[in-house]
């Protein structure tokens, strides 16, 4: 249908909806079933069968399958079946790991999807964009992505950027009037809003006329379906590491095979042993375990109210050295409350906290009511020049919209002004707030068709635009003494960490142009609000913990310097010698000059989004890894330029969220600290299982190589090597990826972003532990074998058991950078369970008679176990008292 040709009431009739009430729940359910979810189709997910078969395409596994076939052809059926079972179990483990990671990432995408503001059953609510249906009444504002194709029903200076559809980068001004033209292209349908386009200015409402693939964007998507899966820098490093390890493992395995054949071992036995050893030596599960560790870490972050949009941010979090955080809502409660009012040249006080509408206005000790001169007018103007709504949920008030607007609504309620009074006025035009103008204006018409302008904004912007000031006696010309009095009251409020907001008005003639540049000049200043947004209780502790971790916390705010300084002092963020810079100083400072002093600055006041970008660059040029928070569309460049862009989940725009790496679901600074702890821990856990896997693999190769060099029989048969690889590598390594963080994780400085995987002594730990594990297994074999061929099966059983137990004990050593004795071994219940299950499986292989011929094992005595355990504990005891 050509929706742009229809009047709004016709669109309402055709879609059975009204813009005042929205859809009913019954209508919503029916349309969701009819049209499906509001999302663009992407490439179909890989089938589960293909994911399972992919586990067997590894080069070494293919060789092992070939070896299994040869074993079967030679009549070694037991070996062939045993190897096949182990390969299948390994395949299933890899499959479940991949499925777990895929589900985690899918859930993550759903959680980080944009939201839409819709009118349902007469109430505005926020829902995921994909739940929007045809007929929904939606509301959009500057910084939002339009969730579906809409027919605009109301526009307040609404402009959208449609370059994704038309290639035209200039914003398009939108209106609600029907268009008579025929066969118009999308760019000419200026009463329509299109899915995924960006609102760059103003606000508006519309009725959804197309969702998902039935949108203009959907038509484009159907022509070009694309998905791009990216790897994190860490995964890329590990992929490179894997290639090196494969080359080294193949070289050592070839050496073992050649030495064995040279010493007279059968070629077939050595070939099978070599292949088994190569499979055991190459940590083919490493990439899968890394992906699972990252995705599970991301799930833990979600529980702590942080959504990671880009996996690379997880490892970058551990390197963060500076957090540049917004003050309002992130370091503070974001529940602005009017505490003081400057009116008629006097300071009035307002009681009550947060969004509770109970409170009283005082002048000294006297209670004031609506009869006090200009008080009702000032609070009424605050209600009218306002885009927020005061809502109730479970008996408690909350604000849907800007917290500053919400504070004005609550203050008006305390004076007894209701929404019914608001309904007596009609909004003719809105001039939206933006960070450059630092003000917002509404043209309002009353019941008598009289028009007037209400403007609210920063006092330093409104006072110069005001030629008059309201006094008890009425409107007076503003004198220099009045300006001085106003400035004194603003300074007084700022000293108390109150945010100041001036409000002014101007009567308008009926024929006065509403697009004139002079519209917001020649104003009458009514008064100044002083508002308090109290600091969050948990932020002070979070800042202190970040300081101990070598992370500098920086406050960035648009508030007055004195307000910013007062809040920073309350939070213990600003040291005695710390600097505070304001916007005017930043304007006169180049990035190079700022870089020279940036380490001494802790608070930036009166900043614009352009200043944020300058701050990020200055910190980065000083070598810092910068986390930057933001919520507005203008914050997106600074968030994108930072190393870790953090957007606000509650107050942030869709554009900011898309530019960010991390979304704070509760807009709380303490959540950033929790995310950094988790980011550091995930990286350390990845180091733990790399250490464990590679040290185990080194031990397996060396026990065979040492035996060959000493002209001894094979201490392990191929099926035992594969069993060690299955039992001791997969599950315990996965459990290490779920390990809790160490107590000192936030007492060390940030990790160097250029640090290699084997830094901080990890390479030495892998080689040294691997050598000792290989030696104790060989010693166990030599003691049991004693050069007697009749003892070969017994010796191999003891060596096999010692190798498994040494690795399972070593896994607890891997939990700490310090020593095995520094942590409670049962703290990680997943690790304890995985080790217990591995021990039980080992006992089954040793003592269950049907499996003894398969794995070439014999039942062991109590005395054997004493020897095995003594040797198995040796590596951990030997290195248990050292950090190296």
From TrEMBL:
Subcellular location, record wording: Endomembrane system
Any Gene Ontology CC annotation: plasma membrane
Record field: catalytic activity: Ca(2+)(in) + ATP + H2O = Ca(2+)(out) + ADP + phosphate + H(+)
Statement: the UniProt record of this protein carries the keyword Metal-binding: no
Keyword 4Fe-4S: no
SUPFAM superfamilies documented for this protein: Calcium ATPase, transduction domain A (SSF81653), Calcium ATPase, transmembrane domain M (SSF81665), HAD-like (SSF56784), Metal cation-transporting ATPase, ATP-binding domain N (SSF81660)
A single BP term in Gene Ontology: potassium ion import across plasma membrane
Residue spans crossing the bilayer: 49-71, 77-96, 244-264, 270-296, 689-711, 717-738, 766-785, 791-809, 830-848, 860-881
Protein EC: 3.6.3.8
Membrane topology listed for this record: Multi-pass membrane protein
Protein family (similarity comment): Belongs to the cation transport ATPase (P-type) (TC 3.A.3) family. Type IIA subfamily.
Entry protein name: Calcium-translocating P-type ATPase, SERCA-type
